[in-house]
Every structure is written in C-alpha cells, then in structure tokens.
Design a protein that fits this description.
By secondary structure, the protein is mainly alpha-helical. Helix content is 96%, strand content 0%. It is rod-shaped and about 70 Å long. 0% of the residues are buried. Pfam families: Entericidin (PF08085).
C-alpha cells in the first residue's frame, strides 16, 4: 500500500516538474518576444533621429 502511494506521488511530481519546465519555456519565449519589440522600437526611434 505504501509503495503504491509513493509511486503515485512520484508520477504526480514528475508531471508537475515537466509542466513547470514547459511553463518556463513559454515564459522565456514571451520575454524574448517582448525584448525584440523593445529593440525594434529603439531602432526605429534611432533611425528617425
């Protein structure tokens, strides 16, 4: 019984870790896209000067 509970807890922990990695990867892409927009806006402003 204890072994079954530990196995289930391990699987749930694994799913949590994998989903967190996916979330951080998505957040990194969002931050990168935002940085790209800021860079493009700075280049546009620089070219207008």
């Amino acid at each position: 019984m204890i072994k079954k509970i530990v196995s289930i807890a391990a699987v749930l922990s694994l799913f949590s870790v994998l989903s967190a990695c996916n979330t951080f990867a998505g957040m990194g892409k969002d931050v990168e896209a935002g940085g790209s927009k800021v860079h493009d806006a700075a280049e546009t402003t620089k070219s207008k000067m």
